[in-house]
Write a structure and sequence with these properties.
Blueprint: E1 4-10, E2 40-45, E3 48-52, H1 58-64, E4 72-74, H2 80-83, H3 90-96, E5 100-105, H4 106-115, E6 133-138, E7 142-147, E8 150-159, E9 162-169, E10 172-175, H5 184-188, E11 194-198, H6 211-221, E12 225-229, H7 237-243, E13 248-250, E14 256-259
Parallel strand pairs: 3-4, 4-5, 5-6, 10-11, 11-12, 12-13
Antiparallel strand pairs: 1-2, 1-14, 2-3, 7-8, 8-9, 9-10
The structure holds zinc ion (2 copies).
Length: 265
């Protein structure tokens, strides 16, 4: 039985879909599944909310899905489309009267410190300054920890100049912004039932898998079901969905899928 779920808050590439100024068939499509906010997801487990990334659309995503508390935040890597909305999470400090627990790679933390330098300046005298985040940096390439009651395994890979955190939570593996990886990743995903992996489009990219490459990755993972995210405007939902092999799907904003998270699956 499912004891958790994954809600796709956004499934779009870094510009979001529609792309500003673009008049292509996808950007002008009337199909809601062709409208994609920046990639982010919410894991619900045991009454808790765990957010994966907080891009520039996070305020809208939180309002739309009534995300009123956040128990943990994963930052996969520090590119704008994944961290641009961190400052929006300040409201949760007021609601919850505590810092947000945030798991990320130590190299990502260094970048976040540069991007949001003012969050790290000493508190101004006379102001009741609550630190916005309680950062829990990981330094290893792979590892396991209990994060606010959620058993998490992680596996790092490199995208361009950034180290990206891949996650394994229960029967789910989640990899965004992936292009290069070592074969150990298939050891890491062994036994997962649900795979979430990014697939930018059809044009080869230096920093993202194409749809074809993502299909090959999903096949090799052995997952029963795979969902593709971080989709660019080359991907028209209904058409591309119809081309995918059985068990593989394009994720879309607002889709929620069941997960089994407890260790004794
Ligand atoms: Zn991205
Ligand atoms: Zn377009």
């Amino acid at each position: 039985m499912a004891d958790g779920s994954l809600l796709f808050l956004g499934t779009g590439a870094s510009s979001g879909i529609p792309v500003i100024g673009c008049t292509c068939v996808v950007c002008t499509s009337s199909n809601p599944k062709d409208r994609r906010l920046r990639t982010s997801a919410l894991i619900k487990y045991n009454g808790k909310n765990f957010l994966i990334d907080a891009g520039p659309d996070i305020r809208r995503q939180a309002l739309q899905h009534q995300i009123n508390t956040i128990d943990g935040l994963f930052i996969t890597h520090p590119h704008y489309d994944h961290v641009g909305g961190l400052e929006e999470l300040r409201v949760y400090n007021f609601i919850q009267k505590s810092a947000i627990h945030c798991m990320l790679h130590t190299e990502s933390l260094e970048e976040v410190k540069k991007l949001f330098y003012y969050l790290f300046s000493p508190s101004i005298e006379g102001q009741n300054h609550t630190s916005q985040f309680d950062f829990i940096p990981v330094t290893n390439q792979t590892g396991e920890c209990n994060f606010e009651g959620l058993q998490v395994r992680y596996f790092c890979y490199v995208q361009g100049n950034a180290k990206v955190l891949g996650l394994r939570i229960g029967d789910l593996a989640y990899f965004t912004d992936i292009k290069s990886y070592t074969d150990e990743i298939f050891e890491f995903v062994k036994g997962v039932k649900t795979l979430v992996v990014s697939a930018l489009g059809f044009t080869p990219s230096r920093v993202h898998l194409t749809v074809e490459e993502a299909v090959a990755f999903a096949e090799r993972s052995g997952a029963e079901k795979s969902y593709f995210i971080h989709l660019a405007h080359e991907i028209e939902h209904n058409y591309v969905e119809s081309l995918l092999p059985q068990g593989m799907h394009l994720a879309y904003d607002g889709l929620e899928i069941p997960l089994r998270i407890n260790d004794d699956n």
